[in-house]
Amino acid sequence: MTASASGYALEVVNLKKAFGGLVVTQDVSLAIRPGERRLIIGPNGAGKTTLFNQISGDMRPNSGQIRLLGTDVTQLPPYKRAHAGLSRTYQIITLFTGDSLEHNVALGLLGLRPARWQMWRPLSFYGDIETEARRTLDAVGLLHLATHPVSEIAYGEKRRVELAMALAQKPRVLLLDEPLAGLSNTERSQVKTLIASIPRETTVIMIEHDMDTALDLAETVTLLNYGRVIVDGGRDAVITDERTREVYLGV
Amino acid sequence: MKWVGVALIAGSLLFPPLFAGDFYINLASQILIAAIFALSLNLLVGFGGMTSLGHASYLGVAAYISALLTSRYGFGHGPAAIISMTGTTAMAAFFGVIALRATGLGFLMITLALSQVLWGLAYRMSNVTNGDNGIAGLTRPMPFGISLDSASSFYWFALIVASLAFLMMTIFVSSSFGSSLKGVRDQPRRMAALGFNPWLIRWITFVYAGFWGGVSGLLYVYYHKYVHPTSLSITSSAEALLGVIAGGSGALGGPVVGAALVLLLKNYASAYLERWNMLLGLVFLFIVLVMPSGLVPGFSSLMARLRGNPR
Question: Which residue, A170, A203, A235, sits at the end of a domain?
Answer without folding.
Answer: A170
